[in-house]
Amino acid sequence: MKNPALDRYFTGRMFRRQYYPALIAAVVLSFGDVADGLVLGNRVGYIGLAAIALSMPVCQIFNVIMHGLGMGGSVQFSRQMAQAKREEAVAGFQGIVCIAALTGVAIALLGNLLIGSLLSLLGTVPADGELFTASRIYLGILLLGAPVLFLNYVLNYYMKNDDLEKKASVAFTVGNVVDIALNVVLVLFLHMGVAGASIATVAGQTVGTAISLIVIVRHRGALKLTPLKPDFSKVLSSFVNGFSASVEFLYSMVFLLIANRLLIRTVGGVGVAIFDVVLSVSYFVINLNDAAAKSSLPVISTYYGEYNEDGTRLSLVTGLKYALTSSVIVAALVFLFPDFICGFFGLSEAEMLGMGQDALRRYAVSIPLAAVCAMLCNFYEARQQEKDTLCLSTLRGLLPIALALFFMFFAPGQFWWLYLLTEALALTAFGIYRRFSFRPPFDRERIFRKTIYSRGVEISETTEQIETFCQKWEIPVKQQYIAAMAVEELCVATLDNGFRGKEDGFFQITMLVLEDGRLEVHIRDNADSFNPFAMEMHSNAADDDANLDALGVVTIKKKAKEFSYRHYQGFNTVILRL
């Protein structure tokens, strides 16, 4: 009953609606991420780059919190919406937003109170003079911006799961443009040094957060900030789900601490500065991978909520194609032009240039493998398979730490091979783990799925197949009749009212037999925005056909235990429980 071409149509279109805005945001975000390093490297020198690198472990803690809350919460939101649990989804969203804001305020206050001890842990003390002072200023301002940083990322995750992917991209893009512009003004023209760079970062995040809040308040979608009725009961479970993917940032913090100390010990501040250049390039790669991975996240989680296993896998394959294409292009550019990249960050002396070229070329060969790992992490995250996500994230997090310690004691000169070894070993070990731990998420025998053209004859054939499917599971005759009638009436109503003048219409139909014998039906179509449940009977005799459609839908609404409609990712989606 599969129709691969039509399945690719739905999946590809939903993915691309997410991807292209996300790609634009990723490119701008990447420039925002490296803006501090670019302007400080060219204005302040390697001290500025070193101050950024020393602050990176704290930024990784930020990432753990904001991505854990945002990713885990938005996946839960998407699944609840796919199961027609709108009120629970909104209350959960409000709970996550409140926790993100309160956590950010706590970190801003405690971080600045304990900043001296924090800097000592990061690897710099007052005796380091200029490096300590620069790090203290840069990190102190970033800590103050924690609340807006957390809110910006959390809101962005949710907006992508409520048909607001383009506006989410705009919010991120504008925020990062502000960051870049202020970096130029404050650092290059007003000579504010590291303070200007960190102020620019916080200001950009504040602008992005403000735009997101305005969009959510004005949007008539599922996301609501008022009336405020937050549900905190699922905050922990959502964070645990998100943490299984964001835990890699925690490992990254430990890795950065070790790497910074290794490089300071072996080649001094210059080594840390080169490390910051490699990190800046890696953030560009991470953002490009995230554009594909995060674009597939809401599609996969929606399919998963509909028990559509084939749809989730097709989404993974689609995302991999885009991620690998961009990764191979970037890897080739980094490998061929490392001298240009080093010069771009102000590293022009012969010794620095030689070390930087070697580091960047060794890093470049790991980029495609990193794309595969990123897509797999998000795939299992979207399907709420926390153990699989945690396994791969842990491998990618622990291996750099182990390899950094190995290189520190046995082969300091080979440090830059660490990235390739990490991705290759992580994929190999994860493949072995999956081979022995695979368990199908659904009993496929309990699922009926078919994608058809919007033609009356195909609708009739499908209803007959649904009756046969129900008979196989010994569904009561009355319930069989209601299920077949529901699919037929809803599809015909959409065919008559939503597909007017449209010849390339499709329906994607999924039906599941639940453990208690109930039936759950999901119908997706590519008609114009049309809610069949809003149809009403009319007394006008000229509306006989419309009255017939409306009568059928009204009957279905009376027979169904639950029903809902949502226009999402450019498609109409209907959910019924019978």
Can you walk me through this structure?
- This protein is elongated.
- A five-stranded antiparallel β-sheet has the order 1-2-3-5-4, with helices on both faces.
- The chain has two domains: 4-437, no CATH class; 444-577, Histidine kinase-like ATPase, C-terminal domain (Heat Shock Protein 90), CATH 3.30.565.
- The two termini are 22 Å apart.
- The chain is α+β, with helices and mostly antiparallel strands and 578 residues long.
- The protein has helices spanning 4-43, 46-82, 86-113, 115-122, 130-144, 146-160, 165-189, 193-218, 235-267, 269-305, 309-336, 338-344, 350-364, 367-382, 386-410, 418-437, 456-472, 477-497, 544-559; strands at 447-453, 506-513, 519-525, 562-568, 571-577.
Short descriptors:
single chain; about 575 residues; alpha+beta; about 5% strand; elongated; five-stranded antiparallel β-sheet; Heat Shock Protein 90; 19 helices; 2 domains
Topology, pairings included?
Layout lengths: L3 H40 L2 H37 L3 H28 L1 H8 L7 H15 L1 H15 L4 H25 L3 H26 L16 H33 L1 H37 L3 H28 L1 H7 L5 H15 L2 H16 L3 H25 L7 H20 L9 E7 L2 H17 L4 H21 L8 E8 L5 E7 L18 H16 L2 E7 L2 E7 L1
Antiparallel strand pairs: 1-2, 2-3, 3-5, 4-5
Short description:
This protein is an alpha+beta fold and 578 residues long. The protein contains 19 helices and five strands.
